[in-house]
User: What shape does this take?
Amino acid sequence: MRLDIDVLRDVLLYLETALKVERIDGRMVSSSIDPYEIKSDGRFKKHSKGYCDMDILNWLQEWYKSNCDGDWEHVFGIKIDTLDNPGFTVCINLEGTNLEGKDFKKMAIDNGDDDWLFCWVENVVFNGVGDPNKLGKILEIFRDWADMQEK
Assistant: This one.
């Protein structure tokens, strides 16, 4: 299954309803998802307060649009798919973007079948895979890394 930006917008609207999301300090948050923060060694630490940044899809749409130049979007882009173990996979082609050639430290969390996530860059592609609850976290990791490259 491949999701495009319009489908992601629909997913966001569904999640807002299904997860009973509310706005707190300008962020869309839900206590029904266990979030993690990235520690300096690339590992994850669970937050004491549960929230999920639902604005990540809006950010991803803007990142995608900022790289569309009439050519890039015909060859490269973003792919979100499901895995059969189960989980999600995210592939974001970085060729021709400001992220091409930037260092990314591989990240891994593996606490069993219900709590795992891996992110890495290989062959000019950001890759993220995780359990069924980690799609948002994979996208947040990409956003945080992309934002750090802007500074």
Remarks:
- The chain has one domain: 5-150.
